Amino acid sequence: MGIFKDHIEAMAAYTPPLEGRNPDDFTLLDFNERTIPVSQAIKQALVDYVQGNRLQQYPHYGDICDRLAQYCGVQADQVMVTNGSDQGIDLIIRACCREGDEIIIPAPSFAMYEQVAKVENLKIIKPIYERESGYPLAEVKAAITARTKMIVVSNPNNPCGTLLNPDGIVNLASSAPDVAILVDECYYEYSQCTVAHALDRCPNIVITRTFSKTWGIPSLRFGYVLAAKENIQALLNVRGPYDINQLAVVAAVAALDNPEYTEQYVAEVMGQAKPKLEGFLTERGIEFWPSAANYLWVFPDRPEAVNKCLQQATILVRPKADADGRVGLRMTVGTCEQTEQLISILEQCL
Ligand SMILES: Cc1ncc(COP(=O)(O)O)c(C=O)c1O
To answer: In this protein, which residues make up the domain named Aminotransferase class I/classII large (predicted)?
Structure first.
């Protein structure tokens, strides 16, 4: 018998396949990261901070919440910064749910929700996403009971990319005002879809966002939560005062100061590269899910063989099974050049 809670010892760790992801050897289309480096402005801001001899001080976050509030169109007291959005997800679930509560996490989805729910020993209810209808709204509503404490809306969802429109989320939140609605807007800059405008009307909505994807600094771990002021105050009681690395804040400020670098990348990915890949797959009659983000969940015949062939051609994508166990390949969309390379290799592999 170990020293930890039984259910924790019985769990498995969340271990994404990070080994061997060397960008010098592979085109990394497996983690939905930005596929080109960050701007010179971010690099310079980091160098300047280090050179300024301030690493010996504890972090101080300055006006970052004001900056984010301005960017998101909310009030500064509706923002809390986090160590990546993973920390936001963790804090929100921990602060809302007690052992034995029910949490509705439509599946398949990003692993972190279930991981935290298991740590808290929650009862997990998993309605299934459908390719045609996306978020299983009716099933989610039907699954709500007196024990339901939280509903997750991964928007757009990972791995499928489907989106629940803001009216649907507001409708869900209004129909269950005592249930926390965790809206994960990790891919917001790609989808341009948000419920940030609904925080005053629906105080049970809590949004997580990140600088890991479009902004390109997953290595530095910077995310934020948007919620009603009272929710932010409660979450600040749980978050540590220094949980966010100083360099993450330095980089985020530099990124916000130079938004055009990110905007250009988003425009290339969503406006040019993604339509190219979608066009190719459609032409070849290969099924994929409609996606509002920088990735497509693609279902070729013989996915394992296609995955292996892509790997041999130095392209990494991520196999992800659907609810029936059928494996699709989640492919991150990068620049036009990278997408053309992907298409030409796919032509040989399919
Ligand atoms: C839907 C979703 N939410 C959250 C995250 C985690 O982001 P972060 O790096 O900010 O913790 C990911 C990462 O893949 C994701 O796909």
So the answer is: 30-343
Helix (H, G, I), strand (E, B) or coil at 27: strand
Q: What's the number of domains the chain is made of?
A: 2
Closest atom, ligand 1, to C-alpha of 32: 14
Q: Is the CB of 32 under 6 A from ligand 1?
A: yes
**CB distance 106 to 112 below 8 Å:** no
Report the DSSP beta bridge partners of residue 205.
181
Tell me how far the alpha carbon of residue 53 lies from the centroid of ligand 1, in angstroms. Answer: 32
The reply to whether omega before 300 is within 30° of 0 (cis) is no
Same domain, 224 and 326: no
Domain interval for residue 233: 40-258
Looking at the chain, how many residues does it have?
350
Q: Is the CB of 216 under 6 A from ligand 1?
A: no
What span, in angstroms and rounded, lies between the C-alpha atoms of 285 and 279?
A: 10
Q: Which ligand 1 atom is at minimum distance from the Cα of 223?
A: 10
> Is the residue at 1 inside a domain?
no
Question: pLDDT in tens for each of the 350 residues of the chain?
Answer: 799 999 999 999 998 888 889 888 999 999 999 999 999 999 999 999 999 999 999 999 999 999 999 999 999 999 999 999 999 999 999 999 999 999 999 999 999 999 999 999 999 999 999 999 999 999 999 999 999 999 999 999 999 999 999 999 999 999 999 999 999 999 999 999 999 999 999 999 999 999 999 999 999 999 999 999 999 999 999 999 999 999 999 999 999 999 999 999 999 999 999 999 999 999 999 999 999 999 999 999 999 999 999 999 999 999 999 999 999 999 999 999 999 999 999 999 98
